Amino acid sequence: MGAEKDIIIAVELASTAVRAIAGKREPDGSMQVLAFAQEESSNTIRKGIIDNIDKTTQALTHVVGKLNDKLGVKVKSIYIGLGGQSLHSVRNRVLLQFDGLELLSHKTIDKMRDTNSGVVYPNAEIKEVVPQEFTIGSRSVVDPVGMQAEMIEANFVNIIARNTLEDNIRKCVTAAGLEVQEVLISPICEANALLSANEKRSGCALVDMGADTTTVSVYVNNILRHLCVIPLGGSNVTSDITSLKVEAEEAEELKKKYGTAYRSDNEDKTGQKVSLSFDRTEDEEKLQEIVEARYEEIIANVCHHISAYKDKMLSGIVITGGAARIPDLQRAFTRQAGNDINIRIVKGLPENVTVSFGLQVGDPDRLNNLYALLLAGKENCVGEAAVTPAQGTLDFEPKPEEEPKPEEPEPTTEETKTDEEKKGSTFKKLWKMLTDSLNDEV
Questions:
Q1: Is 351 in the same domain as 317?
Q2: Domain check: are 239 and 328 in the same one?
Q3: Residues 6+ apart with CB under 8 A from 212
């Protein structure tokens, strides 16, 4: 490919795999996907939290190495997502009382924001602050600067997470020989990528159903109001199916083939059997009961977290994630959330994302979080073209080769003799000629 400019690299640490994607932003603002790679990471990341630093580092090293090969350039830094079970929102209120009427300025608002940022949470830290409306008397305003008040109340939603969550991510990235371009809040990036401006403004809940967790983000009037991570997902359904005495791999296949999130009460009971390992069978109805029961639990938890905002969610519920690819999920949500709630399941690529011709990226419906991280990236993440024997540079300057000297002819025997040797040889020849002459006379 050669040395490209402004290539963005995003990495997702998912419970089932570490995934990486490379993209280039086009002049019109869209993102073109250039390469994709993944490395299986079972028993490495649990519920979005790094469980084994060494194995996560190895998986990250391998997946970035695959990108290096595909791109022909060296990845130097990455954008990486922050999610997981400990991530959640906490509301906080800051009050400011004045002596008489006070003209509110930017300095006043900054002071309130600093007060909020100074809040200390046990074993957790603030990762993002989302300002809400300000209250002056009985009025609720978004921008109070320039108004007069004797007292002002500022409301904030603080996104907090366990102290070690980001630290462990940075350790793995550094150990893999990479730099962290930025740690992004995954649910916020995903909402920006998947929700329309109208949905955020009119009110909706984004539900990301993953393998180990289900993340719920509620927006009203274009502002994030609530964020939580429920420690339940598709792997819990698979685990329940193993109660039929099958291995996890077989249970996953049974879930995909026969599972449903909703069974009608008046559905005809066919008594159909499902084939299991070791020449066993099981009622398909029993298998579907297991799957449905767990999805009912997950949906019940989602409905509990959005109940306080239900009347303000005119755009309803938007669902994404790998565990959302189950038949009749929309009907299952409607049964618990109510017929008056609109349900939309995200399909296909996010807006403004295109995939290079011929590139295989797997199931796009399972990669929305990764696409969202890619869209959030801004800075170039790669270096120069990878060094190859054909075009690489050396760490030293080779010495110039000396021109070969012309071969000289081998000297003759006579030429190799010294002057003294030459004189002796001549004397011997003359002496021999004289003695031969005398012998002839005799």
A1: no
A2: yes
A3: 15, 46, 47, 48, 231, 233, 235, 236
The Cα–Cα gap between 319 and 227 comes to: 15
Q: 70 and 136: one domain?
A: no
Residue burial 73-83, b: 16+ Cβ < 10 Å; e: rest: bbbbbbbbbbb
101 and 112 fall within a common domain: yes
The answer to whether 191 and 89 are in contact (CB under 8 A) is no
Q: Give the chain's domain count.
A: 3
Contact between 198 and 187 under an 8 Å Cβ cutoff? The reply is no
> What mean pLDDT, rounded, does the chain reach?
87
Same-domain check for residues 107 and 247: no
Do 225 and 353 belong together in one domain?
no
pLDDT tens track for 339-381: 999 999 999 899 899 999 889 887 777 899 999 999 999 999 9
pLDDT digits (tens, 9 = 90+) for 182-199: 999 999 999 999 999 999
* Separation CA 197–CA 203 (nearest Å): 10
Phi, psi of 241 (to 5 degrees): -70, -25
CATH number, residue 141: 3.30.1490.110
Highest averaged pLDDT of the listed ranges 41-55, 241-255, 390-404: 241-255
Helix axes 284-306, 234-241, angle to 10 degrees: 150
Q: Is 265 among the domain residues?
A: yes
Q: What is the pTM of this model?
A: 0.83
